[in-house]
Amino acid sequence: MAEAESDTVRPSAVGGQLWRGRTPGRPAPSIMVGTGEVASALEPKDLERMMELEGHLSAASTTVFLSHKSPQGLLNLAGGGSFLVPYVIMLIVEGMPLLYLELAVGQRMRQGSIGAWRTVSPYLGGVGLASVVVSFFLSTYYNIINAWAFWYLFHSFQEPLPWAVCPLNDNRTGYDEECEKASSTQYFWYRKTLNISPSIQDSGRVQWEPALCLVLAWLVVYLCILRGTETTGKVVYFTALLPYCVLIIYLVRGLTLHGATNGLAYMFTPKLEQLGNPKAWINAATQIFFSLGLGFGSLIAFASYNEPSNNCQKHAVIVSLINSATSIFASIVTFSIYGFKATFNYESCLNKVILLLTNAFDLEDGFLTTSNLEQVKGYLASAFPDKYSEVLPQMKNCSLQSELATAVQGTGLSFIVYTEAIKNMEVSQLWSVLYFFMLLMLGIGSMLGNTAAILTPLTDSKVISSHLPKEAISGLVCFVNCVIGLVFTMESGNYWFDIFNDYAATLSLLLIVLVETIAVCYVYGLRRFESDLKAMTGRALSWYWKAMWAGVSPLLIVSLFVFYLSDYILTGTLQYQAWDAVQGQLVTKDYPPYALAIIGLLVAASIMCIPLVALGTFVTRCLKRGDTPPVA
Amino acid sequence: MLCLLFFLVTAIHAELCQPDAENAFKVRLSIRTALGDKAYAWDTNEEYLFKAMVAFSMRKVPNRETTEISHVLLCNVTQRVSFWFVVTDPSKNYTLPAVEIQSAIRMNRNRINNAFFLNDQTLEFLKIPSTLAPPTDPSVPIWIIIFSVIFCIVIVAVMLLILSGIRQRRRKSKGPSEVDDTEDKCENMITIENGIPCDPLTTKGGHINDAFMTEDERLTPL
């Protein structure tokens, strides 16, 4: 029978006494339910399960925070103290219920995402498949970030840092033109790292330096997933804890930087008018959604290894709280560094203006300071009006607020803003190495979760795992992804990366989670699921979860979906930011038709799995019913 | 008569050194920016030193070895501190061409800067671009060295893990098969409900129900 081949079923404890965990040789400690709740909280296995889950999530959340997955990035937190209100509300209303739902489904069905949804209803096997497809897309493009982190890490061992100074031009009389117009950190990112082309149509060649780093990144990922989930569990301890250490070090350093208080004040001053803006709520919902890694199937896979009597409600609440706390903690660090960078830029801008005025009017050196600048400007404007009007166009208006508000999105945040701040710190090599090492840990942690989501169905299926050993399957997956990832090392690679980053996971995940929620509540039946959970864990389901699952969360996801679609329809065509080497800044361009086609393909490939598999199952069932007459 | 001659000489001097005059260069110093508290005041002695440095630079040019300090003229000293200078020929009738002065100053820029404890940004010669220090390029870029080290370590670790995995599998296949079988059975996770494996139920199509005991087993054997 076809169904027997698909997913292996872990023996369930429902109605039976005998069961064994998936990893042989590790007998499950008996967990006393009810009286031993405190004891169960301290069970080493419990802690280990939570650590693995938390490791997977913290990596996801902090990288999302560093705006890799979330479309809006740090802009969210730029809303300041007023952002915390929608953030916390969305966490309680959307994050925790959906996380609990996925964990509960995994723990109850005791299979990976494909098998779990097929158990819920034979027509819904496509949901798991869609999750796997999304995970596949994600793992294809995500590792290039690790490659870039490796590149910067290797370049951090030089004095001075290569992004701190501009290279010289040909006759050594000045600096390279592109570097002068942009800043040295932008030049290093766009020219030296990416060697970016002016538009997505000019593909260029594969750059060998990022390609080498990509190969290394995939080798490291292969090393971690080689032996399967046992070694992955141990690696996750490391990749989850180390970023916290580095964040703490950075917190101490960040708070002692000059100008850090400006950034923190900016972050924590509530902008109450933003609360009325629906965009803030949408951003909060999106941020929570992606930072918890919902819809990838990895949560279901993780939970399937749990013992049936495991208290996944407690896990869900604690882990989502830790996650959000990590995000806020990381944002404090980022904003203090952001404040330092903004203050530094503001002061250099002021110094440039002072120099300009001192030279133009031959004032005494040191006479103009930041404190008397405005006064003297006024005096000069009145005393020498024509000369002043000559100088006026060259004088930039320096404003600390505008420096703080310069929004950087996407990978630019991690690589441009932080490197710019780091180059101005003392002992910048040390801070640079620490920061990129942390970025690597987070990235590799995320990759482990993604590849686990792809590998679990592959190693579970008897067809493939009987022919090839585990190492060969992992090797093949890594190799295929590496070859596809070479596309992102071309000169136009960053544009394709942005396409994948913005469209491969966002809409599909929303739809997948929506279908999941509806499937559990209405197809499987909320009452049936509730009784299953009660029999499994011995704990009744609170009315709050039921209300959220059945009503609020699906409505929220539908509204997010509607918002994104309407946004796309209103703006007409999709646009992207291209780097113009002549001007030294980003310009907006339209996507060519074939890029739009690929975007559509990305979104459709994962979404269409659900109706196609449902249709396929329906057709095969009809055929079977037609073929075999009912047995008397 | 003497007064007239003197007047003429100073007039010519004044003509030679003027802002935007031919072959004149503007110099700008930012002493307080560079030295902060240790800034020295710009007076005539410092000017003398400057003239000496320029004359020294000119003496290094072939055909100009006879330049004296008195041939260097300064004018329009402002509070900034900025001034203009020209270098005249020994007869003090005309100024030396700008190209020569430019190349001379560029050659000796470092020594002029050091004499005043300043650098290229704080002692500016407008219209004389400074030669920037060439970047020190090591023969092998540092990042490739570190990359190769990490690459080799990772490859060795991968090889070790693969080899140990193969060895483990060989050892397992050589080991006792009965233990393996039972473990395999459990690993293949036969669904067990109430102590009866579910597989036989499905394969036999429900024709024989093992849940019901057969006649001989009902009574315990004696």
TrEMBL record, chain A:
Annotated Na(+) binding sites: S291, N323, L442, S446
One Gene Ontology term from the biological process aspect of the record: L-proline import across plasma membrane
GO molecular function: L-proline transmembrane transporter activity; metal ion binding; proline:sodium symporter activity
Domain of life: Eukaryota
Segments passing through the bilayer: 84-103, 123-144, 208-226, 235-260, 280-305, 317-338, 433-455, 476-497, 503-526, 547-566, 594-615
Statement: the UniProt record of this protein carries the keyword Oxidoreductase: no
Region (Disordered): 1-31
Subcellular location: Membrane
InterPro entries, sorted: Na/ntran_symport, Neutral_aa_SLC6, SNS_sf
Name of this chain's protein: Sodium- and chloride-dependent transporter XTRP3
Organism: Ursus maritimus (Polar bear)
Membrane topology type: Multi-pass membrane protein
Keywords: Glycoprotein, Membrane, Metal-binding, Sodium, Symport, Transmembrane, Transmembrane helix, Transport
Record's GO cellular component terms: apical plasma membrane
UniProtKB/TrEMBL annotation, chain B:
Transmembrane segments: 140-163
One Gene Ontology CC term in the entry: brush border membrane
Alphabetical list of InterPro entries matching this protein: Collectrin, Collectrin_dom
Keyword vocabulary terms for this entry: Cell membrane, Glycoprotein, Membrane, Phosphoprotein, Signal, Transmembrane, Transmembrane helix
GO molecular function terms noted in the UniProt entry: protein homodimerization activity; transporter activator activity
Alphabetical GO biological process terms: calcium-ion regulated exocytosis; insulin secretion involved in cellular response to glucose stimulus; positive regulation of L-proline import across plasma membrane; SNARE complex assembly
Residues of the Collectrin-like domain: 21-222
Ion transport keyword on record: no
Protein origin, superkingdom: Eukaryota
Membrane topology, from the record: Single-pass type I membrane protein
Presence of the UniProt keyword Nucleotide-binding in the record: no
PROSITE patterns (UniProt xref): COLLECTRIN_LIKE
Major place of residence: membrane
Name the UniProt record assigns to this protein: Collectrin
Organism whose genome encodes this protein: Ursus maritimus
